[in-house]
Design brief:
Chain A: This is 2-oxoisovalerate dehydrogenase subunit beta. The complex is a heterodimer of chains A (329) and B (367). Chain A is an alpha/beta fold and 329 residues long. Chain A is built from eleven helices and 14 strands. In chain A, helix 2 links the parallel strand 2 and strand 3. The termini of chain A are far apart. Chain B is α/β, with parallel strands linked by helices and 367 residues long. Chain B has two domains: 317 residues, Rossmann fold; 30 residues, no CATH class. Chain B contains 13 helices and eight strands. In chain B, strand 5 and strand 6 form a beta hairpin. Classes of the chains: A alpha/beta (329), B alpha/beta (367). Chains A and B meet through helix 3, helix 4 and helix 5 of A and helix 5, helix 6 and helix 13 of B.
Chain lengths: 329, 367
């Protein structure tokens, strides 16, 4: 394949938006700086030129408004794809997402629905100022009625974003900006969406299951490769669809390997990792050879970028947890 | 010094407190038909409202926000919107919603703790009750944006209370409506009280309407107890919206004659004197006086209407009280288009727990 065919994760997002907008004229894009500027990460570049100002809208600088307007549009059958520029700024929109987007279908017993996607870059690693680097996916995963999806490769970004836009329910689509441009893949622009109810097994293994999502998939895959050199066969699962959670795929793997480490960049306690570990203990306790471990961010404020390397799970921390896990059983 | 005339706020009234005309009638009101319609609907609204309070007091309804004193605003909204327009209510709009297609029994269901109060397909794409203050205002902007994107000749009408105008959602939404020239009418029901907080300590501006000016939207005040003025002002704003000539902010001056809700006791924070004075301006008596003067109304008509209203409300109550209980399935099935595997499992847990309790939940299953 030539270099031109290979695209980054953020380019795959852009490609998916182009495809969805050309296929369905109910799809509209709105947010801060998304139209003329093409988004601060260029995820929406070219959309305004191709689809016009009626469908690609720069909004005033107001996150609660972006969410609320998108909800209003969605109740009328449009499929808004809203961008919140950074996850750290989404909190103003939380009331709209939690109290309305998540509830509209249930509140009206299906009379109105909320087919809305909120795209939001998240996570550390890009030397950004305060509030630009958090990973708070658990806040959204806790809310009945929301879906939470996190791609970790260009192909999955394309297929999952198409699926999120097609889905008739609200999806928080969190984009790990640290790997926006980390890798390139061939991503055919074929409109093929991926399922929203399954994890993705990225690597087969027999000794231990490594469960992760988002940018941490990068370190997790590196750890698996290094472990292979030491004859430890690690299976790697990208959860990708955080909510609803496909626990079956994880259970299947853990019942096979008997060991598991969950890796995520978000703070440790009360999070998605805790939920996975809890379900493993409920449903696979007697298949486990030892306790399930977590390698995560700490329960501290996300450090400014100079010290964030001490916060974001590293390959070394993952390998160390695997070693402990292997020693225990 | 120059004065900017765009900053002046007009106040529109046709019928004063005593039911006397303060300016010549608009043409539509020269015939009695629409005015009689408004009168009947307001009487019906008050009956339905008083019944809701009785139901609550006897344990048959949950906490309920009364529309006592808000009848004029409700019936005019319910009348001047076209079927294909979209109504985005707050939570004190029961009669307007009924006139849009909900049943009065649906109103009782909703406040009686049953989600099925918001499911009636007759209301089309109108939004349901919205409890969190002002959050519906940005939904209205979104609905209006959808209409504009699709190039349709429809309008959106969104209501909120005076307290809502203090919230960011209100200000953000009207700001957008101004900059995007959205086909929407924002109707502030300024009933002077946000639970216990009076209008004068809600906002330092002399009018709430003038917030529209800051958003680049024409804004005015109207007597919210005067159906003629409300009809004029709202109709015109809706027409302007349908023609894509932009949004309007209307501050309707009314008074919440009731407690905030049945859980509130307004005697803790407002005087009997103020309340007595407010009753002098209420909308139903005012229109009744006027119709009497015009010879369009008399005691026997009044008696017939009162009996008819009581009867109709009783039918709605009967229908409400006969509503079968929801199934447990209903609680789980509407969070996503399809029931996710984990929720299916939790539903079977709930079913199991229910069986253990030995309390059979009545109501149909989905399968």
């Amino acid at each position: 394949m030539t270099e031109q065919n290979r695209i980054t994760l953020v380019e795959a997002v852009n490609q998916a938006l182009h495809f969805a907008m050309s296929k369905d004229e109910d799809v509209v894009v709105l947010g801060e700086d998304v139209a003329v500027n093409g988004g601060v990460f260029r995820a929406t570049v070219g959309l305004r030129e191709r689809f016009g100002i009626k469908r690609v809208m720069d909004t005033p600088l107001a996150e609660a408004l972006i969410a609320g307007v998108s909800i209003g549009m969605a109740t009328q059958g449009l499929k808004p794809v809203a961008e919140i520029q950074f996850l750290g700024f989404i909190y103003a929109a939380m009331e709209q997402l939690v109290s309305h987007a998540a509830r509209m279908r249930n509140r009206t017993r299906g009379r109105l629905t909320c087919p809305l996607v909120v795209r939001v870059p998240f996570g550390g690693g890009i030397h950004a100022p305060e509030h630009h680097s958090e990973s708070t996916e658990a806040l959204f995963a806790h809310i009945p009625g929301l879906r939470v999806v996190i791609p970790s490769s260009p192909r999955r970004a394309y297929g999952l974003l198409l699926a999120a836009i097609e889905n008739p329910d609200p999806v928080i689509f969190m984009e790990p900006k640290r790997i926006y441009r980390a890798t390139k893949q061939v991503v055919p622009d074929d409109g093929q969406s991926l399922p929203l109810d399954t994890c993705f097994t990225l690597r087969q293994g027999t000794d231990i299951t490594l469960v992760s999502w988002g940018a941490s998939i990068l370190e997790t895959m590196q750890a698996a490769k290094q472990l292979a050199e030491r004859d430890i066969s690690a299976e790697v699962i990208d959860v990708a669809c955080i909510k609803p959670l496909d626990i079956e795929t994880i259970l299947y793997s853990v019942k096979k390997t008997g060991r598991c480490v969950v890796i995520h960049e978000a703070a440790r306690s009360f999070g998605v990792g805790a939920e996975i570990v809890s379900q493993l203990h409920e449903q696979a306790f007697f298949d486990l050879l030892g306790p399930v471990k977590r390698v995560t961010g700490y329960d501290i404020t996300m450090p400014y970028y100079q010290m964030e390397k001490h916060y974001i799970p590293t390959t070394e921390r993952i390998i160390s947890a695997v070693e402990q896990s292997m020693e225990q059983a | 010094m120059k004065r900017n005339p765009a900053c002046a706020i007009e106040y529109v009234q046709y019928l004063n407190d005593k039911g006397e005309l303060t300016q010549p009638l608009p043409q539509w009101a020269e015939q009695p038909k629409q005015l009689l319609h408004y009168y009947r609907e307001m009487v019906m609204a008050r009956h339905a409202d008083q019944k809701a309070i009785s139901l609550q007091r006897t344990g048959k309804l949950g906490t309920y926000p009364s529309i006592l004193g808000q009848e004029a605003i409700n019936v005019v909204i319910g009348s001047v919107l076209n079927k294909e327009d979209v109504f985005v209510p707050y939570y004190r709009d029961h009669t307007a919603m009924v006139m849009r297609g909900m049943k009065q029994a649906d109103v009782y269901r909703y406040w009686g703790g049953d989600e099925r109060g918001s499911t009636n397909p007759e209301v089309g794409k109108d939004l349901p009750y919205c409890v969190p203050i002002a959050t519906q205002v940005s939904h209205a902007a979104g609905v209006a944006a959808a209409i504009k994107i699709r190039g349709e000749q429809r309008a959106v009408l969104c209501t909120c209370g005076d307290g809502a105008t203090s919230k960011g959602d209100f200000l953000e939404a009207i700001n957008l409506a101004g900059v995007w020239q959205l086909p929407v009418v924002f109707l502030i029901n300024n009933n002077q009280w946000a639970i216990s907080v009076p209008r004068k300590i809600q906002c330092g501006a002399p009018t709430l309407a003038q917030k529209g000016i800051g958003a680049g939207i024409p804004a005015l005040q109207v007597d919210g107890n005067d159906v003629i003025a409300l009809h004029e002002v709202i109709s015109e704003a809706l027409l302007k919206a349908r023609l894509h000539k932009g949004a309007t902010v209307i501050e309707a001056i009314s008074y919440r004659l009731s407690d905030h809700t049945t859980a509130d006791d307004a005697t803790r924070y407002r005087t009997n004197e103020e309340l007595r004075e407010a009753w002098q301006r209420e909308p139903i008596k005012r229109l009744q006086h006027y119709l009497h003067q015009r010879g369009e109304w008399d005691e026997s008509k009044e008696q017939r209407l009162q009996a008819q209203a009581a009867d109709q409300v009783q039918q709605a109550v009967d229908e409400y009280l006969q509503t079968p209980q929801q199934s447990l399935d209903d609680l789980f099935f509407y969070h996503y288009e399809q029931l996710p595997a984990d929720l299916a499992e939790q539903l079977s847990d709930a079913d199991m727990a229910n069986q253990l309790q030995g309390k059979a939940v009545q109501g149909g299953k989905h399968d």
